[in-house]
Amino acid sequence: MADDKLDKIKKQRDRFLAFSFATSDLLIEVAEDGTIAYALGAARSLVGINDKSLIGIRWLDMFSPNDRTTLSSMKERARMAQRCGPVLVTLEETIGGGHQALLSAIRMPDSDKFYLSIGFSNVLMSKHAEEVKFYEDRELLDKESFLAAAKEALDLAKSLGQDLDMTLLDIANIGEVRGRIGDEQWNQFRDAMTSLLSSKSVDGQAAAEIADGRYSVIHDKAINADMLRGEIERLAKENDPTGTGFTVESKTVSADLSTLSDRETTKALIYTINEFERKGTSLSIETLNSGFKAYVSVNAQKISQFKTMVEQLAFDLHFQPIVDLKTGDAVHFEMLSRFRDNTPTQEWIVFGEDIGMAADFDIAVCERAINYLLYKSSGRRTKFAVNLSGQSIQNEQFFKTLHAKLMMNKTLSDRLMFEITESTTIQDLDMVNHFVKILQDDGFKVCLDDFGAGSASFQYLHRIHVDYVKIDGQYTKKILNSERDAIMVKNLSQMCRDLEIKVIAEMIETQDQADKVRSLGIGYGQGYLFSKPMPKPEYTNWMQAETT
Q1: 207 and 114, same structural domain?
Q2: Which residues does 477 contact at the CB level (< 8 Å), separation at least 6?
Q3: Residue from 342, 352, 320, 523 nearest 422 by CA
Q4: Hey, is 79 helix, strand or coil?
Q5: Distance between CA 65 and CA 525 in Å, rounded?
Q6: What is the domain-level CATH number for residue 230?
Q7: From the record, what ranges are coiled-coil (predicted)?
Q8: For a Cys staple, 170 with which of 177, 212, 280, 341, CB 3.0–4.6 Å?
Q9: CB–CB of 543/529 below 8 Å?
Q10: CATH number for the domain including 525?
């Protein structure tokens, strides 16, 4: 029995070793004091390393000096039972002959030891390391690139139910510092700091130079900002010929993602970074939530102006026809708002969404539209479409208010339809579909705007049962020069026909585009080829008008 148990243990050991060496050439156990306690592998035949000779040396001494800061940081921030890497590293010349290797590591539960898995001469593994760009050619991002990378990292963290921090670092008197230590030493310091900040960042890339001497990095909450500042000050001393170094100020802003919508997060991030660029670490923002509140506070006058315009209906309606591509007749007109202060409409609409007033504005537009149909449409039976933002249509109070107004004007159901815009902001598809169904039951048609070829659009179409879809103008612009886009639009059109959903192509600007769209099976079009938005609807045959 004992022999069977021992045999089973040996087989299990051999199996684990086989799995390990299927992807690695060298396995290393690092003790708590940073020395190598155990090494096993076939690295000698590949790069000349005798695994037994490694025992007792400092593990960082195995690698190029250029890699040691990165690897030390990786070990410091390693979480229990979570793999670090892969990282493309270079072995120290006297130990590994300068060979490159792919390193992964893990810290196991209930142990202070650190375990390394190192692979050599594996083309696929090296290619993978280049793709993840964890190490090679690191550069600090500029402000705009950082904002995009930070938003992507924050979105991913939020989707995983996690939170992140953003640390801001400010080197005071940067011009004096650079002049004192000289360009060569400054460049060495900056390279080392770039490696350090990148290694601390959540994805190896979300680190940036926002302004001269001002840096930012998005990282997980396990990173200690004071220690990070201390490491930078240590690098400063190492690269200062006098050994004096220089002071680095830091401030950490908590993302606090659970309290903000995606749009609010974006606005708060931009505002916070702009404040840091202007004020350095003296800014008074502690979380992105407080950053958004500060953004709202700074825009208080603009908010008051927007509220007044909405309350006083200080905007006009313009009309753009949706044309039957066979007959040239307008099947309906889209009602578009134009503010009387001459500010671009989209700017005000986005601002309204940012401050949570999209629903107020949409109700005001609906009131203007209903008034127009009742009193200003010259007795015609023409149909009109009003836009509802994705933010508004998810607001239950908004829908109750809208529905009450529609029920007082039931006779308009065959003349008034609704376009749901900014559909990518919709989170509760079932709620929106419920509202759409109520509108349809009362006789109002519904269109889904900005429809694309992505999987999200198909999900919306599956979950929200609309009467029309309007294909995003980016596809209309590409179909003449991209067979791929043309095929995608054709397939979308066929799918909608099968579902008895009418299709509108927007941003048609040339007759060639109109002809191509029609050949792909799309029945309706909208764009400057037919007409720009006008102060009042013009009832004409738009194909004949274009010909003349």
Answers
A1: no
A2: 507, 509, 513
A3: 352
A4: coil
A5: 63
A6: 3.30.70.270
A7: none
A8: 280
A9: no
A10: 3.20.20.450
Structure tokens at 254: 């908590």
CA of 131: how far to CAs of 86, 87, 246, 494, 520, in Å?
11, 11, 36, 38, 38
The H helix count followed by the E strand count for the chain is 21, 17
**Rounded to an integer, what distance in angstroms lies between the CA atom of residue 337 and that of residue 316?**
6
The secondary element (H helix, E strand) that includes residue 143 is: helix 143-159
**Beta strand ranges found along 460-512 (DSSP E):** 468-471, 502-505
Q: What is the pLDDT of residues 344-403, one digit of tens each?
A: 888 888 888 878 888 999 999 999 999 999 988 777 788 999 999 988 999 999 999 999
Cβ neighbours, 10 Å, residue 127? 10
Q: What count of residues does the chain have?
A: 548
Task: Please give, one letter per residue, the 3-state secondary structure of 226-248.
Answer: HHHHHHHHHHHHHCCCCCCCCCE
- pLDDT tens, position by position, 119-131: 875 544 444 444 4
Same domain, 203 and 312: no
Closest among 26, 93, 83 to 54, alpha carbons compared: 26
> What's the average model confidence in pLDDT over 136-147?
80
Give, in degrees to the nearest 5, the angle at Cα 234 between 230 and 239: 145
Query: DSSP assignment, residue 53?
Result: G
Among residues 255, 273, 298, which one ends one of the domains? 298
Q: Is 138 a domain residue?
A: no
Q: Where does the pLDDT of residue 11 fall: very low under 50, low under 70, confident under 90, or very high at 90 and above? A: low
- Cα(434)–Cα(126) distance, rounded to whole angstroms? 51
> Is 427 inside any structural domain?
yes
pLDDT in tens, 277-318: 888 998 889 888 888 888 878 888 888 899 999 999 999 999
- Tens of pLDDT, residue by residue over 420-479, are 987 667 878 899 999 999 999 999 999 999 887 655 677 788 889 999 999 988 888 888
Least confident segment among 61-75, 222-236, 321-335, 520-534: 61-75
Task: Please tell me the predicted confidence (pLDDT) of residue 127.
Answer: 46
Beta-bridge partner residues of 336: 318
The answer to whether 451 touches 470, Cβ cutoff 8 Å, is yes
The structure tokens 């003296």 sit at 282
Domain membership of residue 96 as a residue range: 18-132
Asked if residues 86 and 104 have their Cβ atoms less than 8 Å apart, the reply is yes
